[in-house]
Amino acid sequence: MKPIWKISIVVLMTTVAYVAVRMISFDDDAEKFTQTYLNKEVSHHNTAQLKKISADKHTYHFLKDANHVTLKFTADNQGYQNYAYYPVRINHSETFWVTLKFNPNPIDSLILNHFSMIKIQYFRQDNNR
């Protein structure tokens, strides 16, 4: 009976640690997904998909003209339920607003965060404030 008890404790501790890491790394996973997704579309010159996810002409032309996308989330998730909203700095120059949808099912999300790109739009900053 003792070996089963020890194995149960180890499995429980491993599960708790895994859940904690997944919760902490949610923003990093979303950032990695977004950068990988945008680079795939940019490198394949998939203009139809870029137009579909771009909320405005500036965003579409910025992505279409880019050779490579390097991005950094400038804040944590601003979303709710199964939507994630992030302000993003792309190629160290312009700021955009990214909308992602993810699977809200806690069991599925523990295994792998399933994201899908909904929209990206240019965030015009007013410097006259």
TrEMBL record:
<protein>
    <submittedName>
        <fullName>Uncharacterized protein</fullName>
    </submittedName>
</protein>
<keyword id="KW-0812">Transmembrane</keyword>
<keyword id="KW-1133">Transmembrane helix</keyword>
<keyword id="KW-0472">Membrane</keyword>
<feature type="transmembrane region" description="Helical">
    <location>
        <begin position="7"/>
        <end position="26"/>
    </location>
</feature>
